Amino acid sequence: MTGINRRQLLAALGAGLLLPVIGVQAASPLRFASASQDSQKQHWLVLFDEQGNSLLRHPLPGRAHHVAAHPTQPWLMAVARRPDRFIELVNHQTGQPVKRINSGPDRHFYGHAVFSADGRWLVATENHIPSGKGRVVIRDCQQDFAIVADHPSYGIGPHELAWLSDQRTLVVANGGIKTDPNQGRAKLNLDSMQPSLAYIDSQSGALLEQAQLPDTLHQCSIRHIDVNAQDQVAIALQYQGELVDEVPLIALHQRGQAVQPLHLPDATRQQMKQYCGSARFDRSGAFFAISAPRGNLITFWQRDGQFIDSIKVRDGCGLAATDQPGAFLISSGNGRCYHYNLRTRRKTKLPQIGMQPQAWDNHMVHVTA
Questions:
Q1: What pLDDT score does 294 carry?
Q2: Helix (H, G, I), strand (E, B) or coil at 203
Q3: Given this model, what pLDDT does residue 212 score?
Q4: Which of 117, 134, 172, 275 is the 20 to 30 A CA-CA neighbour of 123?
């Protein structure tokens, strides 16, 4: 299967796969947030707008991975990169710290956390170091982030997680890779890893459903995911085997069905170097993007699994949906950000953010509150 051409894409848009494009420019520039590192190796949480203005630069105690915005409070959250132990929350209006959460001596974070839609709960994936088993930990934002639930993730190495539309079910990407902070980022079980998607009742902690790839693909680590309003899960895979192996790198899943690996043109698959870094649906949920930073590539897909196209972005990894259907913001490890619009197929470089060069980390969020 090859990518769809411009005429086919416009026909899909016209058929209603996308919401109507808003024709009036927003009254104020869009805002995005990401973790970054400057030339002095200092780590930051940065809020910026599409005109290149830096709105917040908050120092972090170490390298962060995922960032998120609270739905009702002016809070930004940065989660430590595995296997570190902090979650930093800051008020992006005042610049004042809100809370630094520590995972505890026998735990470390796996780089991702989410707020509930009502803003009450903060949910993070963690590693219980003595057992090596994954945990999903829920904290109460109204009670100084006290732990109110500590559920199993039903796998090893839980990474990204997301809420389904019922705002009760969590889907967790269990990467399957066992690690130990005493051994840095070493992968300890590549021969026996069992990645999975686990659907978990956030209230009871019960496992509702677990989905896996075929046993022959057990080294395709399920790391990054995103979910649209129809509870369709886009999956970005990281293969732990040989570069020459022909394996899927992108998949879709819907509850009650098998995981659906997606087909890529051979040249594109080889260029991705067996590693996907981020997954993001657009505003409409009709399209999604998957980044491959090692291959300097961003791929774009229809929600039915059809490959649309790819563009080159050097070390491009972070993805955020904008307020326009079919449009994304892309960040890169070389400090650049780009708009990409599926309707026009145009990649536009944003102005440099701030005065000091910085390398953006793996993830980014559109800040609306």
A1: 97
A2: coil
A3: 96
A4: 275
